[in-house]
């Protein structure tokens, strides 16, 4: 049975949600069919067949690979966030998650800024210190935004809820008459109002508070959820192979990915790019070799272990299509890992598509020039 | 709630300091009075340690100590734990992983001694003067070969080099679907081992306050609270609030900086023994043989289809290389993680997966960005 790769996948995609997998995982939502359909539409119009013919005229083999991926982002459940209003009118965001380059110092304040109506520069980001952060589960499994972001959301809600009660007490007004917008509490139909930071200062003095309320606006929230988020996407890769040397060049790479609601699209695209680059490394370059009898690591330095370099990568065409999830209040899906979960098979599918006319049916990663060359020789009966 | 920031591609606030040389990574930092440690690592991949002669090394200028496993044992320092929670068929076999190898080395790079001196150069010079005598043993690096009958045995407690079996799914339903299938496709896949290589190699400074009996660990790490818990409970047997763990700017982690490494134990323990802080910074070549590596498993997968090309069942059989020791979360990458995504975006009514976790004479494996998500079906 020979079915077109797109047709085969389309026929079998999950189309009804929630969907319980064969191993008991419930997927709440995903753009599986939409991602594939949009990619298939692009492929119809993008001229691959002509490029393949032109390559053949130059003695080269062009191949197109496609893959639809599902990433499951859970990470360790449970996360904590604190919001501390400091005497110098700055606000500390204290997170149990941890950035090691992903940009949390920007993305988390973006959330706090919108929720609290305060400028971005107000915030001080605190992480990665057991003496300053009471508890946390760090980073892993692309968990930081859906676990830590949600904890921050809960902390902001907690602070605002208390602030609203204090505002009603101070202004004064009935609770129902108080509005909060752009960092300020106002009373409907009057001039009375108070800025959030001024209110935070006032909240330090019990004399300003309703009887029995503990002083201070600081909030400490624990997100006790244990959820999966399901990033998903469709990737394609186009390669060109020189059959004389086995060298594979990656000519094009496209992605249509769903990471739910995006807090900072540039940072999300950056995560996808980095992940795809690492996936390209796994598919084509990175070969860890231990000598069989002695256990010596033969690929013990970058001279022998090939990381992809800038000129190994084509421009990565990444489209982010948001389908927010309901499993967390931000609607986010963990973007950190998906790129390297999708790229390897996309690229190997492209390599096999290029080599199919020569009778090659299988190749292991990394598809180094030597391996490609040997696969060709083998299939040709050399 | 305003919508001025969420959803906008704002430039990163932290880049100002990163791009103007104001980032502060462990190597940029110093604790007053700090000494420098160098880890002496096993040259052979599998061998009995016959002798460690550090006399010449200890006599060199600036050298404070050359520590070995015997010194750790004297102080009752516990082994590094594996904290992975995996429902295996029988209890997982977890060979003890001390911070310095005891009696035998089991991978190239296995830590053998910790040399501490006034300067890093003095420590390196001293490390070169330590005389190590080994009796080589045959090694095995491929997980499938390690399961074979005559393979070299790494650990007496793990016959056949097998640490665990893991199974999930409905074998009966899968077998029935295959029996009735119009088409069956089989594939053998190698998920190749990767050296992770964040741009910033691992580094740490350990400090001990004798008056308060507290440790401070400053490291390029990813999960400070979990590390604190492991150090307190498994290694040093002290209350967690006696240990502070902190990370300054970290130059990439990708998962591998999450784990409890021997070096984190060594800098703390040496600081306590010597009464001065101890700093350790990895060299790149050293990272190739000590930092956790990624993936490395071999899978046979079969897909059953009906006459219209609809998927009926997926059967996955994986042999996962764990390395010479079980790393902090080593088993998770081949078990819980792929199980969560098995089947992918496809509607497959019956799925079964089986995994065997195998010990070999290689650097330990642990979760690297994505950690073992399945490839067979995409």
Task: Describe the structure concisely for a colleague.
The complex is a heterodimer of chains A (382) and B (378). By secondary structure, chain A is α+β, with helices and mostly antiparallel strands.
Task: Based on the model shown, name its key terms.
heterodimer, A: 382 residues, alpha+beta, Aldehyde Oxidoreductase, domain 4, 2 domains, 4-stranded mixed sheet, 9 helices, 13 strands, elongated, B: 378 residues, Aldehyde Oxidoreductase, domain 3, 7-stranded mixed sheet, 10 helices, 15 strands, 28% strand
Would you give an account of this structure?
The complex is a heterodimer of chains A (382) and B (378). Chain A is built from nine helices and 13 strands. With 382 residues, chain A is an alpha+beta fold. In chain A, helix 4 (104-116) runs parallel beside helix 5 (144-170) and helix 7 (265-285) packs across helix 8. The two termini of chain A are 29 Å apart. The mean pLDDT of chain A is 95. Chain B is built from ten helices and 15 strands. The mean pLDDT of chain B is 96. With 378 residues, chain B is of the alpha+beta class. Chain B folds into two domains: 15-137 and 197-288, Aldehyde oxidase/xanthine dehydrogenase, a/b hammerhead (Aldehyde Oxidoreductase, domain 3), CATH 3.90.1170; 143-195 and 292-359, Aldehyde oxidase/xanthine dehydrogenase, molybdopterin binding domain (Aldehyde Oxidoreductase, domain 4, 2-Layer Sandwich), CATH 3.30.365.10. Chain B has helices at residues 15-19, 55-58, 69-74, 120-129, 143-147, 171-180, 224-236, 262-274, 284-288, 336-341, and strands at 35-41, 47-53, 63-67, 104-105, 111-117, 131-136, 162-169, 183-191, 203-209, 214-219, 243-246, 278-281, 297-305, 311-323, 350-359. Chain B has a seven-stranded mixed beta sheet with strand order 3-5-1-12-9-10-11, with helices on both faces. A five-stranded mixed beta sheet of chain B has the order 7-15-14-13-8. Chain B has a three-stranded antiparallel beta sheet with strand order 4-2-6. Chains A and B meet through helix 1, strand 3, helix 4, helix 7 and helix 8 of A and strand 8, helix 7, strand 11, helix 9 and helix 10 of B.
């Amino acid at each position: 049975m020979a079915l077109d790769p797109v047709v085969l996948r389309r026929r079998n995609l999950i189309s009804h949600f929630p969907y319980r997998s064969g191993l008991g995982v419930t997927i709440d939502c995903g753009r599986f069919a939409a991602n594939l359909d949009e990619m298939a539409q692009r492929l119809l119009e993008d001229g691959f067949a002509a490029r393949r013919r032109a390559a053949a005229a130059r003695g080269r083999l062009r191949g197109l690979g496609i893959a639809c991926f599902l990433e499951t982002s859970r990470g360790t459940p449970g996360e904590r966030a604190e919001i501390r209003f400091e005497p110098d009118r700055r606000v500390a965001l204290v997170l149990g998650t941890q950035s090691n380059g992903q940009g949390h110092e920007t993305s988390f304040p973006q959330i706090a800024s919108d929720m609290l109506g305060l400028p971005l520069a107000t915030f001080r980001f605190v992480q990665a210190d057991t003496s300053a952060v009471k508890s946390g589960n760090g980073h892993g499994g692309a968990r930081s935004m859906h676990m830590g972001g949600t904890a921050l959301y809960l902390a902001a809600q907690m602070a605002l809820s208390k602030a609203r009660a204090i505002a009603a007490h101070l202004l004064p007004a009935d609770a129902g008459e108080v509005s909060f917008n752009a960092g300020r509490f106002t009373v409907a139909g009057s001039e009375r109002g108070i800025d959030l930071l001024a209110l935070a200062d006032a909240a330090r003095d019990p004399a300003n508070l309703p009887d029995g309320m503990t002083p201070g606006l600081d909030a400490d929230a624990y997100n006790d959820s244990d959820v999966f988020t399901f990033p998903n996407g469709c990737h394609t890769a186009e390669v060109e192979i020189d059959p004389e040397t086995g060298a594979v060049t990656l000519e094009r790479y496209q992605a249509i990915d769903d990471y739910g609601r995006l807090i900072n699209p540039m940072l999300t695209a950056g995560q996808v790019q980095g992940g795809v680059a690492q996936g390209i490394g796994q598919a084509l370059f990175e070969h860890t070799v231990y000598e069989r009898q002695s256990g010596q690591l033969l690929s013990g330095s970058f001279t022998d272990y090939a990381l992809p370099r800038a000129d190994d990568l084509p421009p990565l065409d990444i489209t982010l299509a948001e389908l927010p999830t309901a499993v967390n209040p931000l609607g986010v899906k963990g973007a950190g890992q998906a790129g390297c979960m999708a790229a390897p098979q996309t690229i190997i599918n492209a390599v096999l598509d290029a080599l199919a006319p020569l009778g090659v049916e299988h190749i292991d990663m990394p598809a180094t020039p030597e391996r490609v060359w040997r696969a060709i020789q083998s299939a040709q009966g050399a | 709630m305003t919508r001025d920031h969420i959803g906008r591609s704002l430039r990163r606030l932290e880049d100002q300091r990163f791009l103007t040389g104001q980032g502060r990574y462990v190597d940029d930092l110093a604790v007053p009075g700090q000494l420098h440690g160098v880890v002496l690592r096993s040259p052979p991949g599998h061998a009995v340690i016959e002798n460690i002669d550090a006399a010449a090394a200890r006599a060199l200028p600036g050298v404070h100590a050359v520590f070995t496993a015997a010194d750790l044992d004297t102080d009752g320092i516990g082994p590094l734990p594996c904290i992975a929670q995996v429902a295996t068929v029988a209890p997982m076999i977890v060979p003890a992983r001390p911070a310095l190898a005891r009696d035998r080395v089991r991978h190239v790079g296995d830590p053998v001694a910790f040399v501490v001196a006034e300067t890093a150069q003095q420590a390196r010079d001293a490390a070169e003067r330590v005389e190590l005598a080994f009796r080589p043993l045959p090694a095995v690096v491929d997980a499938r070969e390690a399961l074979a009958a005559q393979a070299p045995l790494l650990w007496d407690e793990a016959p056949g080099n097998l640490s665990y079996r893991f199974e999930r799914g409905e074998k009966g339903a899968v077998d029935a679907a295959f029996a009735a299938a119009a088409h069956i496709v089989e594939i053998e896949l190698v998920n190749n081992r990767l050296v992770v290589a964040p741009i910033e190699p691992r580094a740490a400074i350990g400090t001990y306050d004798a008056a308060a009996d507290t440790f401070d660990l400053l490291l390029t790490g990813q999960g400070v609270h979990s590390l604190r818990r492991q150090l307190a409970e498994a290694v040093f047997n002290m209350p967690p609030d006696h240990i502070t763990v902190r990370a300054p700017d970290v130059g990439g982690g990708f998962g591998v900086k999450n784990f409890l490494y021997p070096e984190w134990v060594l800098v703390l323990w040496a600081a306590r023994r010597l009464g001065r802080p101890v700093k350790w910074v990895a060299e790149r070549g050293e990272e190739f043989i000590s930092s956790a590596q990624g993936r490395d498993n071999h899978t046979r997968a079969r897909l059953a289809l009906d006459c219209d090309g609809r998927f009926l069942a997926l059967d996955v059989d994986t042999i996962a290389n764990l390395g010479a020791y079980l790393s902090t979360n080593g088993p998770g990458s081949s078990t819980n993680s792929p199980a969560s995504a098995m089947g992918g975006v496809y509607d497959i009514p019956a799925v079964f997966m089986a995994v065997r976790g195998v010990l070999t004479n290689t650097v330990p494996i642990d979760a690297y960005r994505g950690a073992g998500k399945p490839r067979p079906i995409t």
